[in-house]
Design goal:
Blueprint: H1 4-10, H2 23-38, H3 43-56, H4 61-75
Helix pairs in contact: 1-2, 3-4
């Protein structure tokens, strides 16, 4: 089973950075996406994991919204 917390955190540079902006973070975010697809997760489940991580990092609602847009742009096409 995948370590979802670690995979999600990797897309944020393991802290409260913007999602998948840095090339290494993008690489880790794409790994997360591949693992999520292989596990049969839906976009809704991925989005829930991202939101939970951002809430745990105490990100503002505006930052959460921005990061969800970044994630959608990177990953949503893979889930449709």
């Amino acid at each position: 089973m995948a370590d979802w917390g670690r995979l999600v955190a990797g897309g944020f540079a393991y802290m409260d950075a913007s999602f998948a902006v840095h090339p290494k973070d993008r690489e880790r975010a794409l790994l997360y996406m591949q693992e999520a697809l292989a596990a049969g997760l839906s976009w809704h489940e991925v989005e829930r994991q991202l939101i939970a991580y951002m809430h745990n990092q105490r990100m503002t609602p505006e930052t959460i919204d921005k990061n969800l847009l970044l994630a959608a742009g990177l990953m949503k096409e893979w889930f449709e």
